[in-house]
Structures are given as structure tokens and as C-alpha cells.
Amino acid sequence: MSSNIQEDYKGIADTLNRLVQLGVSPIVVCGLEDVSGRSFKLASSYLSEQVELLLQFLLNADVNGFKPIQTSLTRSLLKEVYGCVSAEMIEQVLIPMHQGIIPIVFPIVYNAHDGLQRFIEPKDAMYHICLALTECNTMLSVEKVVFIEPLGGIPSIERNQTSHVFINLSQEITDIISELYIGHLDPISRDIHLANLESLSDILNLVSERTHTDETTGIITTPSVLSLNDDQLNPVVYNVLTDRPVISSSLPSALQRTPQISTSIVKKGFEVTVLDRDCYEEKFKLENLVKSKVLDKDKLVNLLIDSFGKNLRTDAYLDRIENSIATLIIVGDYEGAAIVTWEELKNGDKVAYLDKFAIAKRNQGIPGLADVIFKLITQSHQGELLWRSRANNPVNKWYFERCRGCSRTPRSPWMFFYTGEIYNRRMGTKLDGSEQSKIDITEKLQLYSDLVENLEASFY
């Protein structure tokens, strides 16, 4: 066995120990990448060797400053009756957990009809275990579901095939599945990622339906990343501590300062509605959206007032954006929203302007919600986007990390931020010898400043 594999097992044992320190009660489901190509005897022998290695590191944890951890091996948890698999003997997991022992489950199914045993995919075993655990929701809650995958998280074309940072299943799963088919992956890797995504989606939906909460988090990461002995870098430990990914999913992937990662955080997430001219048959104006009941004006106004904690000049504001709306993003039942308008610069050009970015106060601590909205804003207006914020706004640091540039207006309390693909252009020539189009940044900043200074404040 290679030293790298040994190091991974040692690191994973340390991570399990750290999780126990944090009050987590882990369940380990071991398994094979492909159960179809091995006999039951060979598969059982192979898994026993892997588990033995993990046990050695857990029992010798005091070498690394941890307490030795006791484990229990479970081979008879899953039973099949008339084609239906269930974790009938869930006490084999619950009792050790209650005693501070880590249960290690072999994904073996016992067939009650013919007495035969077979291995199933560990992802399928986790589904049946989670189903049984949700029946004990007065005793425990399923908080994290972790897939240890050598290929890492779900690859993203936008991130040059490194992993999606955060996946909002309710909004993104269809697009991500389509992306996997056009992402220039080899068929074997693609099918593995699809299986991971769909299995995790099934488990998260199951837990949500059974517990009526969407708080369970899925994590897909590599053995080497899971073995990192650093609370800030280990994605599972960091997520237990913060309920967030190690980096924000709305950070621009094109910027060099944005890290490339191999872990995906997955949540059932939020339903999101994106409204723009392309998806609306009539003239895209506020009055028509309200009349056709696509938009609830009262809920939107109440959200803005609640989010900003100020009084809105409602009539004046709605009149101003009546004919200038570019994009509306609504999260759930007005849990959050963004309003992007078209604003005219002094030179006659129009710019997409992020007019309002609102999250209901009760939701402002929900991890990932602001990232989901902001990412959709920048995806909807990839070419050029402008927004402003008061110079003393504590959110400005968050904005700064997501912009290509910012500036303070000289005659107002505002500063403005801008981003977009137009700022990817550089001086010089193209490959065909023609001149590369470039931005006069001094002129742009002056145009932005004039616009931002002259837009009337919406709140008082």
C-alpha cells in the first residue's frame, strides 16, 4: 500500500477524531468504487483490510494528540425482503453512537428470501441508513452527509473543471446535469459525478421530506482534502463549525485571488425565480409583472423595508424603475430578492445597475443565500454591472471581493463597484493583428460617478 494512501487514512482518522471533539457522532460507511466486478469474498476481504488500517490509526490517535476512539463493525445492518432494502437493525448504529463509539458499516445486504449476502453501493447504503435515522428524529438529526470521492466535487465549466463550491439543488441541479454532459469529461468520470450528485440529491430530499427542514448539508470531497489537519482548510470540519464552504461560491472564478478547490457543498436550498425580458412575452415593465401576478408588489416592498430597516419612498421608487427593470431575482416566498435596472450614462450608453439587493432579516444568517443571489446577478449581466453602497457600509468588504474595481464619489456619501467581462480586455493586438478594443477606465469611472451621485436615494 502506498505511503499516500496511508497518509490519507491517518488524516481521515484525525478528522474523525476532531469531529468527535466537536460533538459530532460520525457513522462511517465503507465501500468499493465498483461492487459489480468482485466476488463477495474478495470484496469482503478488501474492505476488511481497509477498515483495519483505519482502525489502527483511530486506536493510535494518542500519537497525534487525540484520544483513542473505539469503533464497532456492523455487517448485518441492511436486510432485503421482497426486493425492498431497509436498515432494520438501526440499533446496531444507535447504541454505539450513544456510547461514544464510531459505527463502521459494511454495505452488505442480507436477503431474507434466499439467505444470500451481497454488497451494494455505499451511497445506496447511506440512503437506507438516513431513512432509518430520520425515524429517530427526537434523538438525533442528520446534519452532514459526506461522500469521499477520489475525483472530488462536481466539476464546473466556469471554474475550469475544478469543483462547484456550493450547489443549490432546488435551482441548479438540472443545469449542472446538462453541464456534465458538455463539460468535456470522459464518460466514466461523468457517470461517477452524475451518480454522486443524484444520490446526494435523493438523500437530502429524503431527509427534508421526513424532518420538514432543509438544514442537512451534503459534502463531496477527496480523501486527501478530508485528511487535512486544519480547521480552516478541511471542508468537513469547517462546515461543521460554520455551516459554510471554505470559500464563497460567489467569488469571481476568473480572479487569481480566488482559490481553486476540489470540494462541493450541496444543499437542497432555495427555489429561485429569475425574471427578465427573455422569459416574459409582454412588455417587461413593473406594472405588467404585477398585473400578470408574476410579481407580488406588496411582498417585494415589504422585503425591501425589512431588509434595509428603513422607510421606502414607495411610489417614487416604483415609478423610477417602472420601465427600466432589467432583471428581477426572487428567492422562495420573497425570502430575498435583487432588482437590476438599465440606467443611462451621460454618453448615452446603458449599464446594468444593481439597484436593490435584499435579504429578509430573519434569513440574513442563512449560509449561501447571499452567494446564490449575487452569483445569479453576475451570470445575468456578465458583460458589465455597476452598483453603489454607502462608504461606511460594513458589507463593502464583501462587495470588494466580488468586483473588478471600486471608487469613492467625490460629492456624495456613496462609493461604487463594477465588474464584468469588458474589464477582461487589455491593450494590444489580437491574434489576427487587429487592434484589441480597450476601455478608457478614466472615462468609465467618471460616467459611473456621475450616475451614482445623481440617483436619488430610495429610503429615508
TrEMBL record:
Q: What is its main location?
A: mitochondrion
Q: In which pathway does it act?
A: Amino-acid biosynthesis; L-arginine biosynthesis; N(2)-acetyl-L-ornithine from L-glutamate: step 1/4
Q: What does this protein do?
A: N-acetylglutamate synthase involved in arginine biosynthesis.
Give the similarity note: Belongs to the acetyltransferase family.
Write out the GO MF terms. L-glutamate N-acetyltransferase activity
**Annotated EC:** 2.3.1.1
Q: Which GO terms describe its biological process?
A: L-arginine biosynthetic process; ornithine biosynthetic process
What's the name of the protein? Amino-acid acetyltransferase, mitochondrial
Tell me where on the tree of life, at the top rank, the source sits: Eukaryota
Mention any one GO cellular component term assigned to this protein in its UniProt record: mitochondrial matrix
Q: Which UniProt keywords apply?
A: Acyltransferase, Amino-acid biosynthesis, Mitochondrion, Transferase, Transit peptide
The listed locations are: Mitochondrion
Class of enzymatic activity (EC top level): transferase
Give the catalytic activity: L-glutamate + acetyl-CoA = N-acetyl-L-glutamate + CoA + H(+)
Q: Which residue range or ranges hold the N-acetyltransferase domain?
A: 284-442
